[in-house]
Each structure stands twice: as C-alpha cells, then as structure tokens.
C-alpha cells in the first residue's frame, strides 16, 4: 500500500512515500548488506561538533536480543511489532567526553534515525518508530551505561497487507490517510 503526502510543493519520492505501517511480513529477512547500509546512512548523519552521540542495538527476529526487546514493548506495539524483521534501538550518549551534558544528543540521534529511515525506505523496507517501550528495562537488560539513553525502537521489515493485522483498531489506523498539521501551524516566525 502506498500513501503519498499531500504537500504544497513536490518532494523527493523517498520522502513523499515514506510512512509508518504496522503490517509487517513475518517471513521477510533483511540481508546483512542492507542492515549495514541503514547503519552507514545513520553513521553519516550530521552532529554538533561531530560528536556522533548515537548508539544502536540491533536485534533480528528470532534472536535473544529481539525477544528481550519484544518484552519491553507496550500496548498495541506488542501485537504488530514482533512481525518486523529487525529492531534497532536508537540511543543517545547524553554526556560529552569532558563529562558535561551533551545538549544536542537527542537531536543528533534523531537526525541519525531519520537518515537510517530514509535509507531503509529507499531500499524497499518500511520503518515504524516505536516510542511505547520500557526504556529502563532496555537499559537494564542490555547493561547500558548511565549516560546512554534509549530513545526509540525502529521496527524495520517488508510491508504486508493490512489484512494481516488481527486487531480492527490497528487495521483502521493502517488504512487511514496520512495527516500532518498545516505548515502555517509549524512555522513560528518567517
């Protein structure tokens, strides 16, 4: 299923067609070369002072890391996300090398996740950003240092038909048109 944006100007097709489905092909496997490409795109994201504060946990469906992450999912995410091929936990290193707070770490990690998402879409995969998970459990299960803050789990895989979603509310969300606030609501000055 495709859901292009309605935009005031033409956008690059990779951006215009990117969206976050919940219906994943539970049999799809992502080749390591594609996973490497996603991570390379993320690695080359811009960051303040070239600090590169993003950190990743990669989990493949069926492995122990994936099973740990499944258990941290909350709400509806428990129903659809386990069909994704991989989970990528995006975290930020919140303290700089000199021990001071890294004030742009979350922003920089978001840019990195954004470029990973675009590269995945470019290669024919779908990505859904999951905010509903237990961050403390992820920190504990993966023995993350105090200064590493899990932000989001990216569910990545091949899209399946919305009919694969057993829950009617999820299916309704899947089929709903894409919406965004008008640009005029987002630009404060300019």
Descriptive report:
Helix 2 runs antiparallel to helix 5. By secondary structure, this protein is α+β, with helices and mostly antiparallel strands. It has one domain (26-161): NADH Oxidase (3-Layer(aba) Sandwich), CATH 3.40.109.10. The mean pLDDT is 95. It has 8 helices and 4 strands. It has helices at residues 13-16, 32-43, 64-72, 77-80, 105-122, 135-141, 168-175, 183-186, and strands spanning 54-60, 86-93, 126-130, 148-157. The protein is globular and about 50 Å long.
Outline of the structure:
The chain is built from 8 helices and 4 strands. With 190 residues, the chain is of the alpha+beta class.
Relevant terms:
190 residues; alpha+beta; NADH Oxidase; 4-stranded antiparallel beta sheet
Query: How is the main sheet built?
Result: 4 strands, antiparallel
The beta-strand count equals 4
Write down the CATH class: Alpha Beta
Strand order of the largest sheet: 1-2-4-3
Low-confidence sequence ranges: none
CATH superfamily: NADH Oxidase
* Whole-angstrom Rg: 17 Å
In round numbers, the mean pLDDT is 95
Shape: globular
Quote the distance from N terminus to C terminus. Answer: 36 Å
Q: In which range does the helix fraction lie?
A: 25-40%
Number of DSSP helical runs: 8
Kindly name the structural category. alpha+beta
- Tell me what the CATH architecture is: 3-Layer(aba) Sandwich
Order of helices and strands: HHEHHEHEHEHH
Overall tally of domains: 1
**Percentage of residues in DSSP E strands:** 15-25%
Assembly state: single chain
CATH-defined topology: NADH Oxidase
């Amino acid at each position: 299923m495709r859901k292009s944006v309605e935009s005031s100007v033409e956008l690059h097709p990779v951006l215009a067609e990117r969206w976050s489905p919940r219906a994943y092909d539970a049999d799809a496997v992502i080749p390591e070369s594609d996973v490497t490409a996603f991570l390379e795109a993320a690695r080359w994201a811009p960051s303040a002072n070239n600090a590169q504060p993003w950190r990743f946990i990669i989990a493949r469906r069926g492995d122990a890391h994936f099973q740990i992450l499944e258990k941290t999912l909350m709400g509806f995410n428990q129903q659809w996300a386990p069909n994704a091929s991989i989970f990528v936990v995006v975290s930020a290193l919140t303290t700089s090398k000199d021990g001071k707070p890294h004030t742009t770490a979350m922003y920089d990690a978001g840019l990195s996740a954004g470029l990973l998402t675009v590269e995945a879409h470019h290669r024919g995969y779908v990505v859904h950003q999951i905010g509903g998970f237990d961050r403390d459990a992820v920190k504990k299960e993966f023995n993350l240092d105090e200064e590493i803050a899990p932000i989001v789990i990216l569910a990545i895989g091949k899209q399946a038909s919305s009919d694969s979603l057993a829950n009617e509310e999820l299916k309704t969300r899947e089929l709903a048109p894409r919406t965004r606030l008008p640009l005029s609501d987002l630009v404060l000055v300019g």
